[in-house]
Fold this sequence. Notes:
The protein is α+β, with helices and mostly antiparallel strands. The chain has two domains: about 5-75; about 75-225, Immunoglobulin-like (Sandwich). It contains two helices and eleven strands, in the order H-H-E-E-E-E-E-E-E-E-E-E-E. Strands 4, 5, 6, 8, 9, 10 and 11 form a seven-stranded antiparallel beta sheet that branches. The N and C termini lie far apart (about 100 Å). The model has no long low-confidence stretch (mean pLDDT about 85).
Amino acid sequence: MCILPHEEAVNSIVWRAVLCWLTKYEAVAVWLEGIALILIFAWDRRDANRDHKETVAQLKVAQDQIKLSQNAERAWVMTELGTYYADGRARIAENDMNDAAGRRETTGLTVKLTCRNEGRSPAWIDSVKGYAEIMNNVRELAPVTGHAMQSYGWMGPLAPGKAIERSLDFSCERHARPEQYISIYVVVEYRDIFENKRTTCLGYSTDMDGNFHRQEGLPERNRNT
């Protein structure tokens, strides 16, 4: 009959065998430990990268929601040009003046700028500026970028659903011929309640009889931001 060794003796034998194996194959054990550490590091990086992507995606969703909310609540200042006369025509005047440079010919007109807030919150109009030029047709108009403009000051706050008017005087060098037109370009700069700077631009043409036509075919002269 075979008698089994005591349990502690068995554990001692097993541990001696394991220690013997580790001593004999120490290089292999170190190599396996290194692989395990690399796998653990890679797994941690994978989790961190996944968490980072999820965080970025959540932030983008939040930013998009904020923008949508701001656009829904923001001010929208819409503009148009007109006159103070019942017939709706501008009064164009030819002027001659003498100064140190000699005799000068100019063509002038006065128009009415109307700004209307079509948004859901107030706007603060900080600046109105523009210029006018004599032209034969709209195809010959130069780009507005870099063009010298006259400042007409500020117009102050504008509540939702309200409108405000401003008289603008323009002057062009030389006299215009009967078949020519005067092109007018105006830029209105304002702020909304979120302190975002906004711009509304408008372009008009008027013939020598004072009839107004918005330059609808020139989107770069009629835009809102």
